[in-house]
Amino acid sequence: MNRIPATEQGNSADPALAPPSGAYALVKRGLDLLGSLFFLLLFAPLFLLIAVLVKLESPGPVFFLQKRLGRGGRQFGLYKFRTIQREPTPGDETGSHMAISGKDADITRIGRFLRNSGLNELPQLINIFRGEMSFVGPRPAVLHHEQYYTEWHRRRLAVLPGVTGLAQICGRNVIPWGWRVALDRYYVEHMSFGSDLVIFLKTFPVVLGHVGTEGAEDLYFDFTPPEEASFAETLERDGIWRTFFRYNEKEHGALGSEPLHTEHKQTA
């Protein structure tokens, strides 16, 4: 496995990318460090079992290491369990070829189970321990997405990326990227221990219910931000923790006006 060293790229002088400071940032890092160490020890037998199953089903490395953008736009190597039969090809490591359907023939049997259960993300505990990620935060940005970023989008890079985040409990792949970034910005501007705890706990029913695991391809590269006034109004009206945004096929890419609440959540 090739280690991808973090680069020093990223404009740390940009005030929009200034990381949080004070007691919240210090305590959150301490919780991330202790929590990741605890779960790495707790899940060590599961790590070993998954590693054996991945190796038995197909040749290749146990882990898939992909370059992502972290805090301040710096690159780091994101760990995942390998879920496809073939070796990574050029472009996979930067995310430009990362869109693989859940029905793709390249996905192994154990890989499909790992994806559906979210266990393929378990090695990101290593990233948390190393200080490259947090338990809660915007999902790590794919490198080739940065070409579509404006200063409005780059605000999501001000904090450590997370294993789960606000966009993940509010619809995941069924909402376009512009709206996901808006949710990330909302999180960055309203971070607290309370919101982190709610996001962390809400992640489990979302993952177990397979909510938003299959998104519409025409939404995937839609980086158009929502109109901020109506976006904030929607969050306040429907409740930030209860709203699931529904993709309205009749509108050919527009978001449906009705929120999709937890009791009506979609499954893949």
Structure write-up:
The protein has 268 residues and is of the alpha+beta class. The protein contains ten helices and seven strands. A three-stranded antiparallel β-sheet has the order 2-1-4. Strand 6 and strand 7 form a beta hairpin. The N terminus and C terminus are likely disordered.
Structural descriptors:
11% strand; disordered N terminus; 268 residues; alpha+beta; globular; disordered C terminus; three-stranded antiparallel sheet; two-stranded parallel ribbon; single chain; 38% helix
In short:
With 268 residues, the protein is α+β, with helices and mostly antiparallel strands. It has helices spanning 23-42, 44-57, 109-117, 124-129, 151-154, 166-169, 177-189, 193-208, 217-220, 228-238, and strands at residues 63-69, 75-81, 134-136, 141-142, 162-164, 245-247, 255-259.
Give the overall shape. globular
Strand-pairing-aware structural class: alpha+beta
Unreliable runs, pLDDT <50, ≥5 residues?
1-12, 94-99, 215-219, 240-268
Helix-strand string = HHEEHHEEHEHHHHHEE
**Main sheet overview:** 3 strands, antiparallel
- Separate helix tally: 10
The proportion of residues in beta strands is: 5-15%
Question: How many β-strands, per DSSP?
Answer: 7
